[in-house]
Design a protein that fits this description.
single chain; Growth Hormone, Chain: A; 2 domains; globular; disordered N terminus; cell membrane; MFS
Length: 419
């Protein structure tokens, strides 16, 4: 009898799998994955308060906000290393506790340098959010459904970014901000201690060769692709995370709570766009869709900056920005074109490190222009011109991806000709 083939692999394994038990075990890692998005958006919600608390200008605030991204990017490889050699629950417990400690210091200190260290702690702990979720899925779910569960998990994480906007801003309007911060710290501590009750993952560990990362620096195409990724990430990490709220308040006259809600539509757009972008890439290729995302992002952002769009259309415009941000998924897929199979992990870690450094790149630059233009032109025009760096860098990054795609196409044609 001919064996039936299934689209999703071994369906017999999936059929007898205990989904409820696995989902319950995955809940804590996913909760931390969503929690770290709330911490990531915290400086944007607290911008005016933090500038007064630490007596800093916009440039210094940009540096303060960027420390999160330095911590996140710098700890990508160490956290990945620890997840491979320690129990995942131990890594998750420590990182959640580190985030809580960092937010506690950030809340109660008045010294800007201590606040920068606190932001670095928060970013360092947050680096475990996605890595621990991915590790948990690989441990407790069938490999036939890894992609589907990962997609749902990313959507869950983006819910943290959505509800870390307007709902948290509403709480800040109702209660003293220190009280809200203390509540967020408490949630982090609860996640930390709950992680210790997760099942042991020690038996799944194996000692693997850690080489391969140094070879990435000898790969000019991958470095070129990583720099392009860094330049295109400004909409998400430079605008949505921090500067969207102040921009909407000044340029569109919205309240702080309303502007936080509008900014959340970027993350909703990413939830909508992820499957759409992946589907289009199958037919048009990764590089063509990345360039299309770059065009849509830059065009929509320039329209937002230099044209007074109606207030009712702002959510739609932000959804377009969010769909454009889904290019990041294809950047990681495109990395497989330039990395051998045994080095793909190192290549993805390298790209993700540069991706998160985008926030550290954009925040100080935007803050610098806000400070130096504020005394010369109106505050409305100040934000418009300061944020113009985002679409300009996006266009440069898009051109770089186009060049990589063109080179890849030539390489494929050349290989076929040789055959």
């Amino acid at each position: 009898m001919k064996k039936q083939k299934y689209i999703f692999g071994n369906m017999e394994t999936v059929k007898h799998f205990n989904w409820i038990k696995a989902c319950l075990k995955l809940f804590i890692p996913l909760l931390f994955f969503g929690y770290q998005f709330i911490l990531r958006r915290w400086p944007g919600l607290m911008m005016e308060t933090m500038m007064k608390q630490f007596s800093v200008n916009a440039t210094e605030f940009g540096m303060l906000a960027s420390m999160y991204y330095y911590g996140y990017a710098g700890m990508q490889l160490p956290i990945a290393f620890l997840c491979g050699r320690l129990e995942m629950r131990v890594v998750l417990c420590f990182c959640a506790l580190l985030c809580s400690i960092g937010l506690s210091i950030l809340t109660y200190t008045h010294h800007v340098y201590l606040a920068m260290i606190a932001q670095f702690f928060i970013g360092s702990g947050s680096a475990a959010g996605f890595l621990c979720a991915a590790e948990a899925i690989s441990l407790w779910f069938p490999k036939e459904r890894y992609g589907q569960v990962m997609g749902v998990s990313v959507a869950f994480g983006l819910l943290g970014a959505i509800y870390g906007g307007q709902p948290v801003r509403s709480l800040l309007d109702l209660y003293p901000w220190q009280f809200v911060a203390f509540g967020i710290v408490g949630v982090g501590c609860l996640i930390s201690f709950s992680a210790l009750w997760l099942p042991s993952s020690a038996k799944h560990h194996s000692v693997e060769a850690s080489g391969g990362f140094c070879d990435i620096f000898k790969n000019p195409i991958l470095i070129f692709l990583g720099i392009a990724n860094l330049l295109m990430v400004g909409v998400l990490e430079g605008f949505a995370d921090v500067w969207a709220g102040p921009f909407l308040v000044q340029n569109y006259g919205l309240s702080a709570s309303h502007s936080a809600g509008i900014a959340s539509w970027i993350f909703k757009g990413m939830m909508i766009g992820s499957p759409i972008v992946a589907f289009l890439a199958k037919y048009f290729g990764n590089y063509a869709v990345i360039v299309a995302c770059g065009i849509s992002m830059s065009g929509a952002f320039l329209l937002l900056l230099f044209s007074s769009v109606p207030l009712w259309s702002l959510p739609l415009l932000f959804v377009i920005l969010g769909i454009g941000c889904c290019y990041q998924i294809l950047i990681f897929v495109a990395a497989r074109d330039w990395c051998p199979a045994h080095k793909i992990g190192a290549g993805l870690a390298f790209l993700n490190t540069l991706n998160m450094l985008g926030g550290a790149f954009f925040h100080p630059i935007i803050g610098f222009f806000v400070d130096h233009l504020n005394n010369k032109i109106s505050l409305k025009l100040t934000y418009t011109y300061a944020l113009s760096i985002i679409p300009l860098c996006g266009i440069v990054g898009m051109i770089m991806v186009f060049c990589v795609g063109w080179y890849y196409r030539r390489k494929i044609v050349h290989n076929k000709t040789c055959i």
